[in-house]
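Table S2 (continued). Query chain:
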Amino acid sequence: MAYDFATGTLFLHVAKNAGTAIQISRGTPWCNPHINHAFRDEWLKKVKPERMFAVYRDPVERFQSAYSYVLWKGCQALPEEHIQDYQSIVEGNVQTLINRMLNGYMSPFPVLWSQRLWGIWESDVDVLRFSHIDEDYAAYVKDHNLPCRPLQRINASTYPKPALTKTQMEQVKSIYSQDLIPPTFYVSQI
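Corresponding output:
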């Protein structure tokens, strides 16, 4: 989560959904409370944001992006128990990672593989489309008179996304089954 006290805007940052670009576009720091799911509702009652928004991305595309991101960023100070997973990614063994995820294991970098963070789609949250992020974000910023700069692709991996077989795509879809039904998307009010 990232909160802007000046505008009362709460951005729910889902990994590999343009979050870093959105946070940087603001130009001034956001407050980034490190709040786990159990304390989110309590924190929201105290802060009472005027608006909340998030970005939705197709779960298979998000998985592929996370996979290539891990290759790009490397194995920086991972705990030993996650080295095997990282090695599977480096060696191009996407199936090993999928199998582990099918068994409920979401590492390395668990935030990259999480499904439906914090029930975002069920909340009173404006949801922008990753596939149309430039136009959706520009409209959202304009509609709410938010001071922001255009988005920059600063966290996009230069590594190619893994080609998934039809079976692997179905397996990834089963892992992210709750994310396959997209939410109602934000529509500009202007």
